[in-house]
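Page 47, continued from p. 46.
Same chain as before, 430 aa.
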Amino acid sequence: MSDTSTAYDAPSSIPKPKWRPIIQAGLVGNIMEWYDFAVYGYFASIIGTQFFPSEDPAVSLIAAFGAFAAGFLMRPIGGILFGRIGDVYGRKRVLTLSVLSMAIPTVLIGLMPNYAAIGIMAPIMIVVLRMIQGLSVGGEYTSSVVFMIEKAPKNRRSFFAMWSIWGAIFGIMLGSGIGAAAAAIFGAEALADWGWRVPFLLGALVALTCFLVRRAIHAEEQNIGSETPVRDTFFMHLGDVFKVIMLDIGYAVTFYVAFVYLVTYLKVIDKLPEEEALNINTGSMIILLLLIPITAILADRFGRRPIIILGYLFLSLGAVPFFEMIHSAETINIFLGQLGFVFGFACLTSALTVANVDMLPASVRCTSYAVAYNAAVGLFGGLTPLIVTWLITETGDPVVPAFWVAGTTGFSLLVAIFVYKETRPRHFAK
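Result:
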């Protein structure tokens, strides 16, 4: 394992009153990032008709999601770009820049004239804005995680780390909630005409709050890391990057199966009404938000490695029975099956995040973590809906996605057992 002893080592303890600004700085940025993710997805059909008009509504929707996908294609580049800023110029600076690069395009989308007003420039500008947001997404989560873990007391690192994923999940729920409220308040006609813009413009309030919180944080960052973090990541620490990727594969696949693909599965395979499918998914995410702090405390108490192993073991052994419950078409069984994935994923969140940071040298940590995390999420998580849809089509077995989950989590379980070495204090902060 690479030496991680640098100026960024976490303090042994900090006063509790100083916890709040550190946690807030990581939390609010991820709320902003994933608020936009949810709002764009919620209004994709309207955006399609406004900016990508076609006689076939399906073509407009596909084009809108194409612009959405363009943002994800920029994530690896954004990870390297913002990671380098964080390693060379400091964590505070990258946190401020990343939220601005998400907030400004979000507001501009809300103000952008549609195709009827400016023609072909409308869809071009939407794609450009989504690409800028993709750059931000590529660096925001990993940079905020690194910042919080490095600022956390050594015995509270999992507790601090969990606020990034907590903020991401809350941001998705906030975006969906505001989108649903806009639909209820404005009605279908006004929503399609101009009401869809309101949630994007409200993103300015979230962004302003985030910017002020991050500008106010006190971060002493002398002796920043390497001056060439991108080169050092690929030529000196590539082995560490691959270890993180292998450890995160099961995590990425589980997230995209349980919280992205499953809504489509419930509607297409189980034939559930859309409202019921969304309610089940929302309920499971609420429980996930409640479980994450508990598993983070356990990871700080007993170590990250045992909690990671527990989560992966639970998922690899439980994936098939969980999916069989989900395919039962009984609402209560579907919900309990998804809760199985929720528990396993909750065990992985903050414990795995701290493990990732431990495995990477601090001098290139923002860059190397961004590369590793975006590779795992992009290659394995992002392709998962496509892979499991293809598996069902080819085999005709509606439970076959479980084997993809079991295989990838089983692989990462072996990495957790034989590759990852725990580095944690033996006492628990009171």
